[in-house]
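Example (one chain per record):
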Amino acid sequence: MRKACLYFVFLFIQLSLQAQPKSAEDYYVSAFNEMLDMLAGRDSLSIKRAVFLAEWAYYEGKLDYKTDFCDEIDRIKKFRLSLYTVNKLEKHKTGMQMAINSYIVSPYSGNNYTPYVYDFETFSMDEEPWECQFVSRTLKTHKGQCRSLPWMYKILANELNAEVALAHAPRHSYIMYRDDDNITPEEWINLELTTNQMQPAWWIKEDFEICDSAVIVGTYMTPLTELQTVACQMADLAFGYREKFHRYDEFTYYCASRALEFYPMNPNAWIIRGKSLERIIQNYLARNGNFIDDYAAYLLRLMDETKWRLDHTYMTEETDEIRERRKQQAIEAQKIQEK
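Predicted structure:
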């Protein structure tokens, strides 16, 4: 077993030692290493930086942290502070969240009179480009989807020390924060950024067909900690690698596995780990004549463990019925948005 572990580590180290100039894969290794330093406590946690790193790696370094990310976020921060002060939102315990909500959904000079809206054009595509989920794109276009909008919101909230958290539903993300001003009958506000609505927990659970077990174990409808959020971003880094290079390999395995150490109830990460193991096993057996030696047996045990752990996230399998319902909801939301 020790040899097997060292085998993965050796392959990973090889990736990080490739000769200059940097290959496209090297950017992913650099991003992974920096995120891991955050998770391991060797560097301070920064969700803003982690999100940037995943997008920076996909663009092979053609994204600047200051000009493409920080400058715009800082500008928005200043405007939201003025919004908070002018509207006397300090009298509300969730006043800073109110300022963010208002900035995103209403036309102001600070957003060039262009609220942030759902990107219906990319939704209607047969295959949505991977970049459509990037926060850097949403900052520039004021259009996003069910990943980029809540991640942008989370970054903006962190900049103003407003306590909000990301949460997941099947193939979906949204924002949660405590309803300290008793706006709703529930303890938490569930903010759906794609339609700019506060949704009750029962509706999310029913609409996404989430079972009780998935909520109990923390797979869905659970506010993520800062550590879990960065770990989720590391899993997305592996997903972006797969989308860019059209393959699962040792990097996606190692990336997903480390992410799962800090956020084990992420079904997407278990799926990435499983598909990576499938490829690693196939490649190994092809090299050794399909002989099941100790190392192959070890890989197969890892695969069994991965399947078991994925099953126990109690994730919701997306059906044609669910996909069609999502489509119809998007159409209705577009009509409302146009009005």
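Caption: The chain has two domains: 1-44+246-264+267-312, 46-222+318-339.
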